[in-house]
Amino acid sequence: MTEPAPYTVRGATGDWEIVVGLEVHAQVTAASKLFSGAAASFGAAPNTQVSLVDAAMPGMLPVLNGECVRQAVRTGLALDAEIHRVSRFDRKNYFYADLPQGYQISQLFHPIVGEGHLDIEPDGEAPKRVGIERLHLEQDAGKSVHDAHATMTFVDLNRSGCALMEIVSKPDLRSPAQAGAYVRALRSLLRYVGSCDGNMEEGSMRADVNVSVRRPGAEFGTRTETKNVNSVRFIMATVEAEARRQVDVIEAGGTIVQETRLFDPDKMTTRAMRSKEDAHDYRYFPDPDLLPLELTEAFVAECRASLPELPAARRARYTSMGLSPYDAAVLTAERETAAWFEALLTDLAIATGKTADALAKPAANWVTSELFGALKRLGLGIEASPVAPAAAAELLALVDDKTLSGSMAKTVFEAMLDTGEGASAIVEARGLRQTSDTGAIDAAILIVLAANPDKVAQYQGGKEALFGFFVGQTMRGMGGKANPAVVNDRLKALLAT
Ligand code: ADP
Ligand code: MG
Questions:
Q1: Cβ of 239 below 6 Å from ligand 1
Q2: Residue 220, ligand 1, Cβ within 6 A
C-alpha cells in the first residue's frame, strides 16, 4: 500500500501545510453540576435548574461533585493519559452577563489529567496517533438568549455551573479529514466510557478549532482560534476555510494575527470576533474556596476497573475474529451497535453450540447488510430495532443449520419485521424449509433443461454465463426452497452429461 500524499493547500506561491489543534469541551454525564446539587439535564425550562451557588449568591460555597471527578479520571484513563494525583482549581476572571460569579472555576496550572493520546482513522489517509495535551475540569457558563425579544437579551442559568471536561489536543492534526476523524473518535470514546453523551446538537460537545499554516516542514505559524464549533462537518469546514483564508492573507503580503474567530454556518467561513486574550488577562489564581484535589491510588484503580472494553481494543478483537477492518470499524463506532452485535454473538453461540469466533463473520455480514438496511428504511437507530438480538440469533441459527438459505432468510426477516413473530414460527407457518433432497432437486433441474434445449446447447458450447440462468430457473421451480449449494452441484453434474 502506498502512503497517500500529505494534505496541502495550494497557494499562488506553492503548497502550504495545515496545522490544527482542537480544544473539545465535553459536558460530563452527571446528575448534578460540578459544584452544586442543581440538576444538570438538558432541555428544562429556563432558570429552573439553578441553585444559589450557580446564581453566585454572596456567601455560597462550592462543593466538588465526586462523580464528575470520577468521569474525568475514567476519560483520562481511556485516553491512556497520565492521571495527576494532585490537581487544583483556579478562578478565571472575566465579566459576562451570563456569568454571575464574575469568574469561571477551571484548572489552568494543575489539570487533573496530563498527556495521553488518541488513535484516529481519517477518511482517505493513513491511521494516525494524535497527542493529547491535557484534560481539565471546569464550569460551564450560562446562556444569553438574544433572539427572544426585540430589544432585550435574556439570561438562562440552567447551564451555569455544569461540569465540562476540556480536552486539549497537541497541534498534531494536518487536514480537515484528520480533524473530523479526531472528533469522531473522541466522541465514540466518550460514549463508550459514558462520561459524555456526545450529543453535539444539544451542545454537549463543541470544539475550539486552532488553525495555522506553514510551508511543509517549517516552524509553526501563528494560529487563530475559532470558538464553539458544534458539528464534525462544521469543524472540518472551519479548518478548510480558515487555512485557505490564512494562505490568501500571507500570499498577499499580510500577516496572521492571533485572534478569536467565529464560524458562520451559512457562509461556511470564519470571521473575526475579538483579538486574542492571553492567560494574564484573566488574572488566574487558585480558588480559595476549594482545597487541592487529591486522588488515592485506590480511587484511580477503581476508575480503571470500571472501564468497558474500548473501541480500539474491540476493533482489534473483531479483526482477529476474521471481520474486515471496515466491518470492525462500523460495528464498533457506536457503543450501542457494538453492544447489539455482542448480544447477537452470545445468543447465536448458545443457539448453535459454536464459538463466537466461528460465527462472527456471517453475523457481521448480516448486521451490516440486512439489519442496517432495514433500520435505514425504517429510520430507526439500532437501540430501537424492532428485532432484538435474541430474535436475530434465532433467525441466523436457522441459516447456520441450513434450514434456511440466505434468500429465504431475507424473506423470513421481512416477515419478522412486519409481524413481530419469531423466525421459527414463521418458518413453520409458511412451510419455509430449505431442502437438500437431491431427488426433488434433480427432478426440477431436468424439467428446466428439457424446457430450454437451445440454452443447454449454448452452455455446453462454452457460454458459461448461462449457468446463473439455470440456477434461477431451478430455484423458481423449487419455490425458492432448494439448498443453493446442492442446486449448483447437481446442475454442474447434470449439464455435464
Ligand atoms: P489557549 O487556552 O490559549 O487556547 P491552549 O494551550 O489551551 O491555549 O490550547 C492551545 C491549542 O492550540 C491546543 O489545542 C494546541 O494544540 C493548539 N495549537 C498550539 N499552537 C498551534 C499552532 N501553531 N497552530 C495550530 N494549533 C496550535
Ligand atoms: Mg483555547
A1: no
A2: yes
Residues 6+ apart with CB under 8 A from 189: 75, 78, 79, 118, 310, 311
Q: What is the pLDDT of residues 397-416, one digit of tens each?
A: 999 988 888 888 999 999 99
Pocket test for ligand 1, best of 208, 223, 235 (most atoms within 8 A of CB): 223
Nearest to 401 by CA among 360, 442, 354: 354
The CATH 1.10.10 portion of the chain extends over: 438-495
276 exposed, middle or buried (CB, 10 Å; 0-12, 13-18, 19+)? middle
Q: Report residue 254: phi and psi, to 5°.
A: -85, 180
Q: Is the CB of 128 under 6 A from ligand 1?
A: no
Q: Point out the residues of the chain with pLDDT beneath 50.
A: 1
Place of cell 432448494: 482
Residue nearest to atom 11 of ligand 1 (CA): 21
What is the distance between the terminal CA atoms of the chain, rounded to a whole angstrom? 47
pTM score of the predicted model:
0.85
Taking CA atoms only, the protein residue closest to ligand 1 atom 20 is 171
Do β-strands 163-169 and 9-11 pair in parallel, antiparallel, or remain unpaired? unpaired
Ligand 1 near 171 CB (within 6 A): yes
DSSP 158-217: TTTT-EEEEEEE-S-B-SHHHHHHHHHHHHHHHHHHTS----TTTTSEEEEEEEEEESTT
Q: Whose CA is nearest to atom 17 of ligand 1?
A: 21
Reported as a single tens digit per residue, the pLDDT across 21-63 is: 999 999 999 999 999 999 999 889 999 999 999 999 999 999 9
pLDDT tens digits along 124-138:
999 999 999 999 999
In short, whether 130's Cβ falls inside 6 Å of ligand 1 is no
Counting ligand 1 atoms within 8 A of each CB, the residue from 9, 17, 23, 117 with the most, and so the one to mutate, is: 23
Q: Is 21 in the pocket of ligand 1 (CB under 6 A)?
A: yes
Domain 438-495 class? Answer: mainly alpha
- Per-residue pLDDT of 174-190, as tens digits, reads 999 999 999 999 999 99
How far, CA to CA in Å, does 64 sit from each of 32, 197, 293?
10, 21, 9
Q: Which of 138, 81, 82 is nearest to 108 (CA)?
A: 138
Ligand 1 near 169 CB (within 6 A):
yes
**For residue 3, what pLDDT is reported?**
60
Closest CA to 36 of 65, 8, 59: 65
